[in-house]
Amino acid sequence: MRTLPVVALLLVFTRWAGAGDAPLELVGRITLPGVTGRIDHMALDAGRKRLFIAALGNNSLEVVDLRAAKRVRSIPGLDEPQGVVFIAGPDRVVVANGGDGACLVFDAGTPEGYS
């Protein structure tokens, strides 16, 4: 079983300075057990501190709770998910699939809405 770190969560600025002056420092790692292949785009729900990850090689959308630093949901059965965006107003996650060309819209309000 292969796990993929969520690279975007691994690096932070150690200080806020002028361009090129801020080194990055590894501060943590979140694994995605069972996810294989590459990941593609990510989207942030800043209000709820969730990260949505298009797991292209796994044909799934992964939902990560940034506060708990763990995956809280996996939505399987997608067809090469590539683009993902979170839209706060209507509380939706939109996933573009490269395999079948479908653009799927999920209710992001509750975990039950990810169906």
What's the layout of helices and strands?
Blueprint: H1 7-10, E1 11-13, E2 24-26, E3 42-45, E4 50-55, E5 60-65, E6 70-75, E7 81-87, E8 92-97, E9 103-107
Antiparallel strand pairs: 1-2, 3-4, 4-5, 5-6, 7-8, 8-9
Write up what this structure looks like.
The chain is mainly β. The chain has a domain at 37-113: Thrombin, subunit H, CATH 2.40.10. Helix content is 3%, strand content 40%. The chain has one helix and nine strands; from the N terminus they run H-E-E-E-E-E-E-E-E-E. It has one helix at 7-10; strands at 11-13, 24-26, 42-45, 50-55, 60-65, 70-75, 81-87, 92-97, 103-107. The strands form three sheets. Strands 3-4-5-6 form a four-stranded antiparallel beta sheet, with no helix packed on it. Strands 7-8-9 form a three-stranded antiparallel beta sheet, with no helix packed on it. Strands 1-2 form a two-stranded antiparallel sheet. Strand 8 (92-97) and strand 9 (103-107) form a beta hairpin. It is globular. Mean pLDDT is 83; it is low at 1-17.
